Amino acid sequence: MNLIGKLFKGLWHGLNFSRRLIVNLLFLVIIAAVIISASSTNDEIIIDNNSVLRLNLQGSLVEELTYEDPFDAALSDATNSNDQPKELLLDDVIRVITQAKDDDRIQILLLDLKHLRGGHLDKLRSIADAIEAFKDSGKTVLAHGAFYSQAQYYLASKANTISLHPYGGIDIRGYASYPLYFKEALEKLKVTQHIFRVGTFKSAVEPFIRNDMSESAKEANKLWLDELWSQYKHDISAARQFDTANFDETTDNYLAKMEQVKGDYAQYALKNGWVDALKTDQELQQELIALVGENNSGKSYKQISFAKYLSFITPPVDFVNPVTEKVAVIVARGKIVDGKQKAGTIGGESTAALLKKARLNDKVKAVVLRIDSGGGSMFASEIIRNEVLAIKEAGKPVVASMGSVAASGGYWIAASANEIWASPSTITGSIGVFGLFMTFENALNDLGVYSDGVATTELNDISLSRGVNPQLAQVFQLGVENAYDKFISVVANSRGLEKSAVDKVAQGRVWTATQAKEFGLVDSLGDKQDAISAAAKLANLDFYDVITIEQTLSEKEKLLREIFGTAMVQDTISALAPQSSLLKLLEKNLGQVSTDLERHLSTLSQMNDPNGIYTQCMTCQITY
Length: 624
Prior knowledge:
- This protein has 624 residues and is of the alpha/beta class.
- It is 47% helix and 20% strand.
- The protein folds into two domains: 51-68 and 84-172 and 247-313, 2-enoyl-CoA Hydratase, Chain A, domain 1; 175-235 and 318-451 and 464-624, 2-enoyl-CoA Hydratase, Chain A, domain 1, CATH 3.90.226.10.
- It is found in: Membrane.
- Keywords: Hydrolase, Membrane, Protease, Serine protease, Transmembrane, Transmembrane helix.
């Protein structure tokens, strides 16, 4: 035995030495790459006169970029195994289009959207408005692609002309909500669920207690999904100047039209008026060369990409005028959880700290709380709302600006603002609460594992391995009912509504902002800029600057981001880290199911409310 032990110990030391050697070599290669990169001069960005701005957007549109560890992000990109979808900051896209509108060197905006992964209708509409302003300046917008998703086509519809590859197609299916349901799986695993909820339509816990969607949830979801679909159809029809009846909503109509074109998706799009012409990439390139001329290489047209133009217009140092009065914008995006969190998740303490920073800044005269959240921890939501109240008490108005979603806890943190502004397509409401936890006594018993012992009081009779005392379960239900009463009271008092009126439109039911406005849950319809103007008006500001108060990176994080963001370092890591074909295959075939499972597991893992009470909308996730 001693000999075997020494053998394994020797093997371990050998493996450990090899591991450290490889890591150290990798580190030395990266440092060398940084030194070489730093010593070389970056190519200066030059924009030719009469150029095309190629809006080649990549990723999902978001209000705030999710924090990523720089090394992990670089390694994930290199191995193509990044389980976090690439994100694209909405404000960056709008800023690029707006700047290009007034740039005499840019004559054409080319919408190259094949890598745009989507975004909620409110974000697409904001970009579409910027595209319309670009067109109104007398410049041309072209859209070209092989395939258009529903989100991609929404932006493409704003172009002067849309072209499609002859072998391409357009995928417009409307909106849907098809959550996964786990009741039977949990029963087979003998997991005991303890659910406490209030609200007829509070369907957040349905995936854990049902195998299908309840009729009440279907009724509520169909109402707001139909409203979103109606808005989408209206916007496209106005842009393309055809009737909303041109959208196929039944398989019979779709099949009949496809039979007429013998299954040719591109011809279907052309005949339906979705596109103006069918062109190959080469034909488009020749057309653009004829319009703006060849670039220096003579191989393509004069152009600049989205990323390069963004880099060109972004100052190296973000200068803030110390003299002017300010409207501060604070973004609250993601699940609401207790404690301090990085960007992309709303932490009760961390988001409240950002609001406090605005409150204590004498130059900040008004605050816009930009919300994109389906909620989460009730306690964390209240911590944030308390800071909103403190800002108001300091004499500074607060305007809540709702993005894609501001429901459940997202509505809680908005409720006490001086005014609530929302996009017509914002998903809001879902005023309801629930408690959820699971115990494993039956599963453990099947394995021959039992829990037994003594306690000084009966109040300690709750455990993952023993279950829950029925009387304590009643106590939890009372706590949830009390939380619901607090929620509707907060809304009623903040919005100047009768409590009974709030209860009538609450019950966990989800609405679009156009519907919520009718009930008094929203004051006005508009985007973030409208909310900023409203905040300035409330603060009686005629001249002001807009600043964004966000979490700052530490000096170490800044250095690492700069190092691992260097192109040479990324190329080095990519060369050293082979691609995983297995990961690609799994990603391709599991697709949406994997995403849905991850979302549910992520939701469970982030449930850290100290009282175990949540105000969260899980049906607010939709399929585009």
